[in-house]
Amino acid sequence: MAARATAARVWDRTPGTAPPVRTADQLGMVFSRLDCRPRRREPLPGIGIPTLVVHGRRDRFFPVGNGEAIAREIPGARLLVLEEAATTLPETAVSEVAEAMLRLGQPTERRPQGAGATPRGGPGF
Question: Cβ atoms within 10 A of the Cβ of 43, count?
């Protein structure tokens, strides 16, 4: 009986019946019950080497904001958002990622905030 009541609550609060909406809602319920300790982001501020955070714009599971938050927490990290990628690195983006990795040791151009700068300074960062 408890399972039926839980299922009814999930169905009632789901904002729509389309399969992607229902799947996202169910995943949210599962993840809300996970114990995520230790926090995986806690050690990020202690990273002291040049770091490139690569994130796919089409990742439906982790939005780009997740990659932005990780890059903000690592001192001096650069963020590369791959517009056509989801959760894996497409073969067509290998050279773009390699070039970004090679630029890690080079100083970045600092742009004033709000001046159209993409995350972490230059195009693709």
Answer: 11
